[in-house]
Structure formats: C-alpha cells, structure tokens
Amino acid sequence: MQTKLNTAEEAFNYWKTTPLTKRIQFVLELKKLLQLHRQDCAERITKEMGKPITQSLAEVDKCAWLCDYYAENASTYLEPKKSSTETYQSLVIYEPLGTILGVMPWNFPYWQVFRFAIPTILAGNTVVVKHASNVPQSAESIEALFLESGFPIGVYQNLHLSSDKVAEVIAHPQIKAISLTGSEKAGISVATEAGKHLKKLVLELGGSNAFIVCKDADLDKAVAIAVNARMQNAGQSCIAAKRFLIQSSIFDVFVKKYKETISKLVCGDPMLEETQVGPLARVDLAEELEKQIQKSVSMGAKIILGGNRNQAFFEPTLLIKVTPEMPVFKEETFGPVAALLSFETLEEAVELSNQSEFGLGVSVFTQDIETIKKYIPNFNEGAVFINEMVKSDPRLPFGGIKRSGYGRELAEEGIKEFVNIKTIVINK
Predict the structure, then answer these.
(1) What span, in angstroms and rounded, lies between the C-alpha atoms of 404 and 174?
(2) Alpha-carbon separation of residue 87 from 79, 90, 121, 393, 423 (angstroms)
(3) Model confidence over 223-250: pLDDT tens digits?
(4) Taken in order 115, 118, 124, 125, is the CA torsion positive or negative?
(5) Catalytic residue among 48, 193, 204, 332
(6) Other C-beta atoms lying within 10 Å of the C-beta of residue 362
(7) Which one of 96, 215, 230, 315 counts the least CB within 10 Å of its CB?
(8) What is the largest CA-CA distance in the chain?
(9) In the 8-state DSSP scheme, what is residue 232?
C-alpha cells in the first residue's frame, strides 16, 4: 500500500501541472480503448457478477459516453470564475487536492469507477481504487486500460485490500479525500474514519425509490418503464424503482399488465443475448432477499408472481398487500422484487414516497405536468423524474439525501467535489 501511495503522490506532483488539454487527450484515448475492447470488458462484467451481456455492453458504452462528455466540458467547468466586487480583481480558481481514494461496488463494476475517476483525474488529482472483492478481473482491466491509454504511472492505481484495511488507507496523510459507493453499513464505517481525520467525503449509498403512477398516466408507457426500472441488472441497483405506488382506480389494471409483462421476461444464462434477467452476484445476496420477502409475507404481503430462489438466481417477484412496516417497503431490496401499494390522492403518494430513510430519487407518471411540478418541492429526494425512470446521466448531478448519502457525482457538480475552491482577491 505504501509504495502505491508514494507512486500516486509522485504522479500528482507532475499531473497537477499537466495542462488540462493534455489530460483530456488521455481521456479520449481511454475512450477509444474502451470501444476497442468493448466485448471483452462486457464479458468480464457478466462472468464476474452475472449481469446480462446486453446490459454489460451498455455499461461499457456509457463509460465511453462519460469520457466524451467530460472531454468536451471539463475546460468550461474548471475555468476560473470572475466575480464583480469593489476590488481590482476577484476570482475563484479550482485546484486539485491530491490523491483521492475510491471505494467502489460490484453492481456496475466499470461505470461506478469511471464516473468517480474520470472527473477526479481531469481536475488534476490522482486516484487509488479499492474495488469490490468479487470483481477482481474488472478492477485489473480498468487499471490496464488507463496505463495502455498513456496515463502516467500512478495517476490511476488499484489497491488490493480487504475491507478491514480501508480505515488504514483513509487515515494515511497522502489520502486527501474519499468517494464511496456502497451500502449504508460501509458508508457509516467510512464516514466515521473520514470524520476522525477531517477528510472530504462523497457517499452514494442505498436507495428505495418510489415509482408513482397516477390515474391519468399513459399506462402502457408506465408499465414498460416500470419493468426496466425494477428488473434491470436483476434489480441490483441503488436507483432502481423498488416501491410501486399506484393510484387506486388503476391499481388492478396496472398490476395485471405489470405481471403479464414481467412473466414474459427471459431469465437464465447471462451470457446469452436473449437473457433479460440473470442471477444475483452472490448466493448470500439472494438469501438475504429471500428473508426480506418471507418476513413481509409473514406480515401479510401476498406474492402474485415468483418468490422462488435457486442458489444465486431469484425469480422476478411481485408482492401486493404491502404495508410500510414490511421489509420490502422500508428496507432496500437488492434484487428483482417489486412491492406494490395503492394510494388515493397525490398528497398520500408523496407521504408514502417520503416514508423512507432513503432519498435518492422518485419517478412520477402523469399527463398533468403542471400539477405535478407543484409537488416537486415536497419530495425529499436527490432527484425527481417525471414520466421517466430515475437514472444516472453524465450531464446531470447524481446523489441523494438522508441515508442515501451526500455529495454529488457527474456533471459540473461532480468534477468540483474534489478540488480546492480557492478565492483570489487583487487590489492595486
């Protein structure tokens, strides 16, 4: 570990003075290599954590898009900003901090790393990444891509560490800030250590997003998006829709259409292009999901589709008669399981949506755009998507509130998380 941190520190001394235009050229070369090795990267994702191959290919493509986005916009975002004051000159400049630690998850093993590393590196920092232990080949291939792209040694490095060693890295004086994407438990642990050493931290944690469908919604569109919002990556996403709140007058017809569509999903070998739902990443994750469902059923929930587990594979599952006290409502369900509830009024829907310790995002489907816009301030979320599923997009800041974490990734806000925002005042 010490050798790699020393290498990162030495690289930072050079990298921070490298012109941004040159940093951008490295990123564009990285994008080319991603596209060249697209199939290999995607197959690696699928083999390591079970994502259907078509979705793995889409993940790699999204990383390439992110490289393009920041290559085009980094100069604008990091340009000094002049302010009008009574002094001769006042401005703000953005300077890199040093070496930044990324603690990354397995569910999007390329995307999560790229959305942290690319803006952080373009801002002039170096990064060290502690990736999830069950995606070691993905971790190795990402580092190899950075090196093959021509990035100086030490700008991007893997740290091959167990989770119990992360606190030691955080405490190291060469680490200036930390970004973690992961569970609440991991977030609390990392935040505790970061707080002890007064280090900047961005946390992207769990979520239990509500998916609200009003009686005037385009029902076929809402159903189609609802399937993808819950079943993509076998439901293993912090921003997946997990609680489906349907206005009572259309509840039965929505459930019927939703059930029919999900029952037709192709489940099986994730390496086959026709597969839409693959296994979960690990058996213990499937076992935990099974416990959440069984406890909810014991409390009165009713399974109307699925509910069965075979090792790491879990059937797409729908539950009705769900109440807010049940695990499938109040906890994050990391798998292909949807909890469906009805509501009478928009006020009730907002209340149910907010009745969660998480706050990543909410989707609302309605044709009355002007009315729903008035309710946007009432949602305690990091994002509100109307007639669309919650998703990450390089052009938009991403992050949550409450127990979903703090700080932002992506867009202009993301590239400025790990910089010193320095004020300059000059008088004659």
Answers:
(1) 28
(2) 20, 7, 33, 39, 13
(3) 999 999 999 999 999 999 999 999 999 9
(4) positive
(5) 204
(6) 27
(7) 215
(8) 75
(9) G
Which residue, among 286, 311, 181, 165, has the nearest Cα to 235 in the 3D structure? 286
Give the C-alpha distances (Å, rounded to integers) separating 335 from 96, 233, 235, 245, 291. 38, 8, 4, 18, 12
DSSP assignment of 76-124 equals HHTS-EEE--SSSEEEEEEEE-SEEEEE--SSSTTHHHHHHHHHHHHTT
Distance between CA atoms of residues 190 and 195, nearest Å: 8
Are the beta carbons of 224 and 258 closer than 8 angstroms? no
Q: What percent of the chain lies above the pLDDT cut of 90?
A: 100
Q: For residue range 276-293, what is the model confidence (pLDDT) as tens digits?
A: 999 999 999 999 999 999
E strand or H helix at 19: none
- Return the DSSP state at 126: E
In Å, how far are 113, 211, 246, 349 from 386, measured between CA atoms?
A: 28, 10, 15, 14
Give CA separation, 153 vs 100, 147, 150, 172, 418, in Å.
Answer: 15, 7, 9, 20, 21
Q: Out of 41, 63, 238, 267, pick the active-site residue.
A: 238
Structure tokens that stand for 290 in this block: 């099974």
- Tens digits of residue pLDDT in 323-336: 999 999 999 999 99
The pTM of the full predicted model, rounded to 2 decimals, is 0.97
Instruction: List, in sequence order, every residue forming a beta bridge with 319; answer none if it has no partner.
Output: 303, 339
The partner residues of 358 in beta bridges, in order of sequence, read 402
Catalytic site residue 204? yes
Q: Is 67 an active-site residue?
A: no
- Asked if 280 contacts 236 with a C-beta cutoff of 8 angstroms, the reply is yes
Cα dist from 288 to 262, 309, 323, 359, 394, whole Å:
22, 11, 20, 22, 32
> Which of 239, 224, 231 has the alpha carbon at shortest distance from 409?
239
Q: Find the mean pLDDT for residues 206-223.
A: 98
**Which among 253, 267, 175 is positioned nearest to 218, based on CA atoms?**
253
The two tokens of residue 188 are 């609390």
Give the pLDDT confidence of 148-187 residue by residue, as tens digits: 999 999 999 999 999 999 999 999 999 999 999 999 999 9
What is the length of the chain? 428
